[in-house]
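Format notes (please read before filing issues)

Several people have asked whether sequences and structure tokens are stored in separate files. They are not. Every record keeps both together, in the order shown below: the sequence lines, then the token lines. Line labels are part of the format and must not be stripped during preprocessing.
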Amino acid sequence: MYPIHKNIVIDTDRIFIFPSRENLTYYKLGYENDVNKIKFKILFPDENIHTKFIVGKLKSNAEFMIHVNNTFFKSLISNSSGYITFELDNNKKFYNVEIELNSKPLYLVILLFIFIIITSIIILIIKRIQKRKV
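Then the structure lines:
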């Protein structure tokens, strides 16, 4: 448990937290020391505290998905230093935040490549069949 007080920036491993007012408590639960994933929990003393998060030591120039309370919140691309920045306007007192590498673009590229290869093979087979008929 790491208490964070008003107007104090705490660097806890990879996370910088900037609360707009009051105090908040940061729990590093389920934390994975990995460039592709990080999980943490935030407990606010009150609702309506605007908070800015800067998360670093991630894979650089990669797309990350942010889930808040097991619901998709935002998708961001990390900068060349491996940092992402996002803001949270809370309407609850407790948040479970999970940030993980989005591998969907990679899968889409692989599927597109496979589709192009299969289409090329089908076109070649059709041309050979037509050539034999003539």
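For reference, the curators noted about this record: Residues 104-133 form the longest helix (30 residues). The longest strand covers residues 94-101.
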